[in-house]
Specification:
Elements lengths: L5 E8 L4 E10 L1 H15 L5 E6 L2 H7 L3 H6 L13 H13 L3 E6 L10 H18 L5 E5 L16
Parallel strand pairs: 3-4
Antiparallel strand pairs: 1-2, 2-5
Helix pairs in contact: 1-2, 1-4
Length: 161
């Protein structure tokens, strides 16, 4: 299967409104989602009970559900093909294995106009900004503090919410 490559951003934040985002001019959505998980784990090694709010079923399942079968099958999927993005996935597993505390993946709705998960909305907004800057050839490493009460969903240039 060919995944469309284009500008991609990664955004992550915490419950205090501290956010980080970065972008790349070309990449796939799945790689961006996996890199967000990896960055979150690496950026917060000291958190004893770490909860990752995630809107990507793919990234969540790569990190958790599919691991046992992929390891048993030599990193081959159910079609006997090599697992895509295996280098990032294995790096995520190493980060998970090295943590003293627990990590929970909490599935939240993506691009949610009701803004039920304002941290996810903020991460999406920052990721979109980083992707747009990367596409334009500008610096795309962003750090910010946001008031989560003021975060509102918006239409993006990469799709409507």
């Amino acid at each position: 299967m060919h995944w469309k490559s284009g500008p991609r951003g990664v955004g992550m934040g915490d419950e205090h409104g501290n956010y980080h985002a970065s972008g790349q001019a070309h990449g796939t959505h799945n790689v961006a989602e996996l890199n967000a998980v990896l960055s979150a784990l690496r950026d917060h090694p000291e958190v004893e009970r770490f909860i990752i709010q995630i809107d990507s079923t793919y990234a969540r399942d790569c990190s958790t559900t599919w691991r046992a079968n992929w390891e048993r099958n030599g990193m081959r999927n159910s079609k006997k093909q090599p697992v895509a993005n295996a280098d990032i996935i294995v790096a995520i597993w190493r980060e998970l294995d090295s943590r003293a505390g627990s990590v929970t993946f909490l599935k939240v709705p993506g691009h949610d106009p009701s803004n039920a998960s304002p941290m996810n909305t903020a991460a999406d907004l920052l990721a979109t900004e980083a992707a747009e800057k990367a596409q334009a050839g500008r610096s795309c490493d962003l750090a910010s503090t946001l008031d989560l009460a003021l975060v509102k969903p918006r239409a993006t240039s990469f799709g409507k919410w």
